[in-house]
Structure formats: structure tokens, C-alpha cells
């Protein structure tokens, strides 16, 4: 039997030189133990049932209890995707292993209800949204076309996703303003500052633009380290939505997997301060620690197609939003040296 999942746009596209893209691709995705097609179809039916019933249940639930219901739905959906949730709280003592919640039963949350918090996390794939919401319901800044996806589109709408079109740099200030307004209203908003998905064993630089919303509203920032582990406790890349991957192939891969764990590690909270670049660096250091990216991405450079261009947000005198100049982004000898370093 074959699992059929309606398709959606592929994982990445490049519209302009400043648009982040990752070098991750099919070679990054490693297989794990799989279940049979029958069980996978059962999981798919469970996902469909949850997505169909959630809007009705959410409406009839009293306002004061909706967060508990939404959290329960997210955790059930995560289980239907074949994943267990593990939450690790390292906010009290960052040098320790942290308080571990294996079953997701403890009240380990991003912040008190009604208090604005910006949650910052590296982006691996579409399952990130489910894993993060399973800890505590929150809104997201996500790719604009997600609302049109056949499986997650309705869920994205109900979660009040703030759409971002990475192809339109001029629209970025409006997105920052929307995030700021939601934070000021006491919402929890998750952002993916890398601007694109990576496989989980590699990662990109955190772009500072969206951090401005936290600074403007004096909102604390919660860095989150998200990992997916296989049944043996090793980090796996099955949920990575990278390269030319489509939603259909990604969903089949996730639904067939056995014994995966979504590990959400809450790192020490960062106060916003007054400099978005400094805030981005602090959050990146909190999330990555001493971990090295598989692809060895150099600081200050982002992948753009088959070349690398300087990230304009790194330079102190460069605005986040501007038209890329027409000059060659790197000298020929610099590209050769960069390729040798990899």
C-alpha cells in the first residue's frame, strides 16, 4: 500500500541575492526504522480526524480552557505523526542537564498566559510547528503559502500564523510591526530567524530583522533548541524539509518513521536590550552552544543558489532591507578559498 498525501510547494526557492537558502538537500536525510504501510495509513487518518474536529472543539470550548485543549490537540497530533515529546528546561541552571519532562505532563511552558514572549528557534521542517505548540500554544511567523497547504493550512489559520513572503524584502517592516503588535498584546510568537529550513545537523545564521519586534516592545526572548531523535537517542534528519523536498514526500517519510522523539530544550531567557544584532547573536549562542554545523557555514555569509553572498544584516552600516547591489558578491580567489575550507 502507498500513502497518498496531497502535494504542496517544495522546500526552498531563491528569488533574490539576500534571500536565505540552505545547502541542505536529499543527502542530509538519513533513514530510520519504519512502520508498515497499514499503521502509517492509520496515523494519517488520525491526523485528518484531529484537523477536522479541532475547529469545532475550539469554538465550543470556553475561552479560559482553550489553551489546555489546544495543547492537548497538538500533543495528540504529534503522537499521530509518530513522535513523542521531551521537554528540557535549562533556564534555572544552564550548566546542568536541566529538568526533563519525558511525557509532556509537567507545566513546562514558554511563559505565563497573557504575557508576551518571543520564542526563537532554528527551523528544520513543518513538524516544528506541531512540536513547539505541544509545549504551549503559540502563534508563528511562517511562509505565506502555508495557509494553502492541504494538511496544515487550516491549522495555520487557526493558530493565527503571521505570513511572511521571503521573496518580498519591502514587506518585512510590516511583518515586524505585526509581530510587535501581537507581543504587546500579550501573545507568544515563535519566529525562525534563519529564514529557511535546515536538516537539523546543520544550521544557518540568525538574521536580526525580526528581533526588532522584541526590542520595540521590550519583550523577553525565549531561545529554544529543537532536535529530533531516533528510537536509539541519536539525532535524526527525517523531519528535515530541505532541498527539492515536497510536502507529500516529507509527510510520507515522517508518517512511516518509528520511535522518533521531538526534544524541545528551553535555554535561558534573553532580555531584548537595544541592539537587534546583539540580541540575535546572544540567542544563537544560547541555542547552538559549542555545536558545529555539518556544512561549516562561515559567520557572516549565507548561501544563495550556487554562490555565497555577504549577509547585509551583519555589517553595522547595512540596513536589513535594501536592493542587492550589482557588484560581484565575492572575488574569484575568495570563492576558491571558501570552497577549500568546506
From TrEMBL:
<keyword id="KW-0012">Acyltransferase</keyword>
<dbReference type="GO" id="GO:0003841">
    <property type="term" value="F:1-acylglycerol-3-phosphate O-acyltransferase activity"/>
</dbReference>
<comment type="pathway">
    <text>Lipid metabolism.</text>
</comment>
<dbReference type="Pfam" id="PF01553">
    <property type="entry name" value="Acyltransferase"/>
</dbReference>
<dbReference type="InterPro" id="IPR002123">
    <property type="entry name" value="Plipid/glycerol_acylTrfase"/>
</dbReference>
<keyword id="KW-0808">Transferase</keyword>
<keyword id="KW-0443">Lipid metabolism</keyword>
<feature type="domain" description="Phospholipid/glycerol acyltransferase">
    <location>
        <begin position="117"/>
        <end position="229"/>
    </location>
</feature>
<dbReference type="GO" id="GO:0006654">
    <property type="term" value="P:phosphatidic acid biosynthetic process"/>
</dbReference>
<feature type="region of interest" description="Disordered">
    <location>
        <begin position="313"/>
        <end position="342"/>
    </location>
</feature>
<protein>
    <submittedName>
        <fullName>Lyso-ornithine lipid acyltransferase</fullName>
    </submittedName>
</protein>
<keyword id="KW-0444">Lipid biosynthesis</keyword>
<feature type="compositionally biased region" description="Basic and acidic residues">
    <location>
        <begin position="331"/>
        <end position="342"/>
    </location>
</feature>
